[in-house]
User: Which sequence fits this backbone?
């Protein structure tokens, strides 16, 4: 049985319609064609002029739309969307589209959600958006207390345990409880969403050389190592703390399926170096599959046909693969 052929289409949200989201949606459809069933949720008037569109009234209708057209589940917005100039009147529509996509995947009408980039300040200014970003809003919609951000490309998967905080705050924020929860959610996600029956996890040290026995800080020996040893004793295939400066060359990457890192740049620098255009943002710990391109709204190039759809294409493909893994 072809599990992929049995899947409902992937729901692709419009994101900020004044950013590059509408443009890369059209480009991604041209790359993927009918091989990856999807539908775009948004206002057809916000798509690039001349885009071949087939409006649908239900997700399953996307399966019969020709590859030359973008299947669109229309969602009316309050205002036009001039490229590069977000209109506060459209903020509510952006938020509604995300909620609509989640409702569709929760009902089984969509197999996964792939989200185009949003601009948090534009949503806050226009609609009082109370969440730090996409991930927290999705967790709220799903009724989940804790989720984990993974960045993935064919050669590497990384998970930052702490994310958008000053580096000076990392040592206090990186508690044993936080790190353990991050590792457990990552481990479960690798099994459920990536089909890895016994995933191998590498844990980066906080300090240079993983503390070098306490010479460069005690966090690694006093907190990270005992936690890793305890999880390994439970049967988890896990190693660490490992010196971050030797974890990401090709030979080292072959030894693990995901790296859990202490802070944002420790995780994101290697993946953006390895595959800047093709990285995918994955949210682990949700009851549904969610992926996103690993870039922002790019207002500066919106509407100029310059945007690279590679990350969105990768995000849609990964969404389909993850939905397939869950189905199996």
Assistant:
């Amino acid at each position: 049985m072809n599990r992929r052929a049995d899947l409902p289409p992937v729901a692709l949200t419009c994101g900020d319609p004044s950013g590059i989201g509408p443009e890369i949606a059209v480009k991604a459809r041209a790359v993927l064609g009918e091989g990856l069933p999807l539908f775009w949720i948004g206002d057809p008037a916000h798509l690039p002029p001349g885009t071949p569109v087939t409006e649908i009234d239900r997700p399953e209708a996307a399966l019969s739309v020709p590859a030359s057209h973008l299947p669109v589940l229309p969602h009316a917005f309050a205002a036009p969307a001039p490229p590069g100039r977000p209109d506060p009147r459209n903020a509510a529509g952006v938020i509604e589209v995300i909620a609509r996509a989640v409702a569709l995947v929760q009902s089984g009408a969509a197999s996964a959600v792939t989200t185009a980039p949003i601009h948090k300040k534009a949503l806050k200014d226009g609609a009082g958006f109370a969440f730090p970003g996409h991930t927290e809003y999705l967790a709220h919609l799903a009724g989940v207390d804790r989720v984990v951000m993974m960045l993935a490309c064919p050669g590497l998967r990384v998970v930052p345990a702490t994310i958008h905080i000053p580096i000076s705050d990392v040592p206090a924020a990186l508690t044993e409880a936080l790190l353990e929860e991050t590792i457990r959610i990552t481990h479960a996600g690798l099994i459920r969403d990536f089909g890895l029956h016994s995933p191998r996890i590498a844990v980066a040290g906080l300090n240079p050389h993983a503390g070098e026995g306490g010479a460069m800080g005690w966090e690694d020996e006093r907190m990270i190592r005992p936690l890793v040893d305890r999880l390994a004793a439970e049967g988890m295939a896990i190693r660490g703390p490992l010196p971050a400066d030797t974890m990401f060359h090709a030979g080292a990457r072959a030894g693990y399926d995901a790296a859990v890192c202490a802070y944002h740049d420790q995780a994101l620098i290697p993946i953006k170096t390895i595959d800047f255009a093709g990285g995918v943002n994955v949210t682990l710990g949700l009851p549904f599959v969610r992926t996103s391109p690993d870039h922002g709204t790019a207002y500066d190039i919106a509407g100029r046909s310059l945007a690279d759809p590679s990350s969105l294409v990768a995000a849609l493909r990964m969404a389909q693969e993850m939905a397939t893994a869950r189905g199996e």
Notes: The chain has eleven helices and twelve strands.
